[in-house]
Design brief:
By secondary structure, chain A is mainly alpha-helical. Chain A has 11 helices and no strands. Chain A has helices spanning 2-12, 22-43, 45-66, 76-105, 108-114, 119-147, 156-183, 187-199, 215-222, 226-237, 245-271. In chain A, helix 4 (76-105) packs antiparallel against helix 6, helix 4 runs antiparallel to helix 8 and helix 7 (156-183) packs across helix 8 (187-199). Chain B is of the alpha/beta class. In chain B, the strands form 3 sheets. In chain B, strands 6-7-8-3-9-10 form a 6-stranded mixed beta sheet, sandwiched between helices. Chain B has a 4-stranded antiparallel beta sheet with strand order 2-1-4-5. In chain B, strands 12-13-11-14 form a 4-stranded antiparallel beta sheet. The longest helix of chain B has 20 residues, at 299-318. The chains are: A mainly alpha, B alpha/beta. Chain A binds chain B through residues 2-3, 6-7, 9-10, 13-17, 19, 21-22, 25, 28-29, 32, 35-36, 39-40, 43-44, 106-108, 110-117, 271-273, and chain B through 16, 50, 53-57, 75-76, 78-91, 93-94, 98, 102-103, 105-110, 112-113, 116-117, 120, 134, 150-151, 154-155, 160.
Chain lengths: 273, 319
């Protein structure tokens, strides 16, 4: 008796959704996947501790350990904070790589696909969760920076622009690492790939002025995405205004577009077997 | 469409590179029945389930599930099926209740309906006490039950179960069988794969034996058992000459022979009169057979017998 009531309840409340609702379903499915991912991150205590400690360690490393030896013509902490922000975004994004790879190597993606939760919902959910994680970690990095003596000269509009660019940068890194996660055959491999992407930030203007680098490194540093992003952030936070804003934005949008397209293709390649 | 089969396929084919996984699968599963695909590893059972549940696209042939084409109307199919694969799909860090509520929402139940349905399934599957514990603390049997429950939130018409009891202890296995039979009793069509004859016997009204990506024999468990004899008779000859003599008398009926151990295997119906008659027939003077055992035929034996006859039937059909 109870059973039949529950059955009717399920039917009345839209057990089989009409075909036209697919677009809305994709959005709500992605949101559910994101909530799941965030819940899992909060409960994986070891990962959470590392994620919270890493920004503090990196900031301390650069400000107190290397900072004394690097000459930039200004206070090194004001020079390095934009660099540490981007490096931390890179490291934090590795989590997305790992969780995408983990899910693809377990049975859950098959279960989801058999429920008509497709690749778009799956990937968007992971990216959404990754973006939330990464933005929280970015706020922590900024807090640590202020505690260590970071004193920017940015006005309200500069801050707005800088936060906008940081968010775009988070999205680019997160989509890129999510896509790499679809390539990895294990969570460990995804971890390695993610860290390789993180290393791209080192041969850039993040920690050392590009003019002080060996010529061949300089060529790479001048033509990779992290340099214009860091330079623009530095200019904005310094109150001098963004220098390469459109180059930085174009890099981020380009990486997002390429990653989304590749992720769609790789997801089908991985799962439709 | 009351008489339309719940699952139907013809000439269904699927290859992975040079490896053929399905080579013309023909199935017709009546609505409301429990149907077992029986066969060893590599027979194509999992591929059959993946293709029929729309996860993998067939290279050839056609199939429909719940009345919809598995390729052109795969989204319609997905709204009406549930798949529980061999791999456990649960997050160790979520509780049983959280898992089911999330799956319910993904199956497009409202938050309230998902909560109600999750609670109901947890009670029905005897997981009520563990509902608010993390899945990581569950036993293998509990995880399987929760995994199956996660597929039942939206009342699927067709339930696919890929080796639902592999790795379970006998008690958990029996509990799982009860759960599966209850679903069928409630009107769902169940297609399950298994390597175990007794499982197919317990659960299924119809069994299809698979080999090399196609069905080589099909029927009720009793019909299949009758075809292979049902019991296995092991004979050990007294000496080499006795072995030769027995082997000559048994001829092609031997399921297996091992000259070094002087060992011959054949199948027989289980009745004592038949077994006694067979021994008398083979060894009228009572000095050829030194020792014998009579045991239930294992899947290996059933399978060898079925595929052997399947092979001869196929070749004679080609003549």
């Amino acid at each position: 008796m109870t059973d039949s009531i529950a059955l009717e309840g399920a039917l009345v409340e839209g057990q089989v959704a009409p075909a036209g609702a697919t677009f809305a379903n994709t959005g709500s499915d992605a949101l559910l996947m994101a909530i799941r991912s965030l819940r899992l991150s909060l409960r994986a205590i070891d990962g959470l501790v590392v994620a919270l400690a890493l920004p503090v360690i990196l900031m301390g490393l650069f400000v107190y350990l290397f900072g004394g030896a690097i000459r930039t013509g200004a206070r090194y902490i004001d020079f390095v904070v934009p660099g540490v922000l981007v490096v931390c975004i890179g490291y934090s994004a590795v989590t997305t790589s790992i969780s995408v790879a983990h899910d693809l190597n377990e049975g859950i993606v098959d279960r989801l696909r058999s429920m008509d939760v497709g690749g778009v919902s799956f990937m968007s959910g992971h990216v959404l969760a990754g973006t939330v994680r990464n933005l929280i970690s970015t706020v922590i990095v900024l807090g640590v920076a202020f505690a260590m003596g970071f004193r920017p000269h940015a006005g309200a509009l500069d801050w707005l622009e800088a936060l906008g660019l940081l968010t775009l940068c988070v999205l680019a890194y997160t989509w890129l690492t999510a896509t790499l996660g679809t390539l990895a055959r294990s969570a460990e491999a995804a971890n390695g790939m993610g860290f390789l992407v993180g290393f791209v930030a080192y041969p850039s203007s993040a920690f050392v002025p590009v003019k002080d680098m060996a010529p061949w490194v300089r060529g790479f540093a001048d033509h990779q995405p992290v340099t214009p992003i860091v330079d623009t952030l530095r200019g904005l936070l310094d109150g001098a205004g963004g220098t390469d804003t459109w180059v930085a934005v174009a890099w981020c949008l380009g990486i997002i577009a390429l990653s989304v397209a590749l992720a769609g293709w790789l997801f089908r390649l991985r799962t439709e077997r | 469409m009351p008489n339309e089969p719940a699952i139907w396929s013809t000439a269904l084919a699927k290859s992975y590179g040079a490896k053929t996984a399905l080579a013309g699968l023909e199935l017709s599963v009546p609505a409301g029945s429990v149907f077992a695909l029986l066969g060893p590893n590599g027979a194509g059972k999992t591929t059959a389930v993946r293709v029929l549940s729309t996860l993998a696209r067939p290279d050839g042939g056609r199939a429909s599930v719940a009345g919809y084409d598995i390729v052109a109307q795969r989204h319609e199919v997905r709204r009406r099926i549930s798949l529980t694969g061999q791999e456990i799909t649960l997050d160790a860090l979520q509780t049983g209740r959280e898992t089911l509520e999330m799956m319910g929402r993904l199956a497009h139940l409202s938050a309230r309906a998902a909560r109600a349905r999750a609670g109901e399934l947890l009670e029905r599957f005897d997981l009520g006490d563990a509902a608010d514990r993390r899945v990581g603390t569950y036993s293998g049997g509990m995880r399987r039950k929760l995994d199956l429950a996660a597929g039942l939130l939206s009342q699927p018409e067709v339930i696919f179960l890929d080796e639902p009891t592999t790795g379970l202890d006998p008690r958990a296995r029996a509990a799982m069988w009860d759960v599966i039979l209850a679903q069928a009793a409630a009107g769902a069509t169940v297609l399950l794969t298994t390597q175990y004859l007794d499982e197919a016997d317990q659960l299924a009204g119809c069994v299809a034996v698979m080999e090399g990506g196609r069905v080589v024999a099909q029927g009720s468990p009793d019909e299949l058992k009758a075809r292979v004899g049902g019991q296995q008779l092991d004979l050990w000859a007294a000496d080499g000459a006795g072995y030769e003599e027995l082997s000559r008398r048994i001829g092609a009926a031997a399921l297996r022979t091992d000259p070094e151990e002087l060992h011959l295997v054949l199948t027989t119906p289980g009745e004592a009169t038949k077994a006694r008659w067979l021994l008398d027939e083979l060894d009228p003077d009572g000095h050829l057979v030194k020792r014998f055992t009579l045991s239930a035929a294992t899947l290996d034996d059933v399978f060898m017998a079925l595929t052997a006859t399947g092979a001869t039937e196929r070749s004679s059909a080609n003549d």
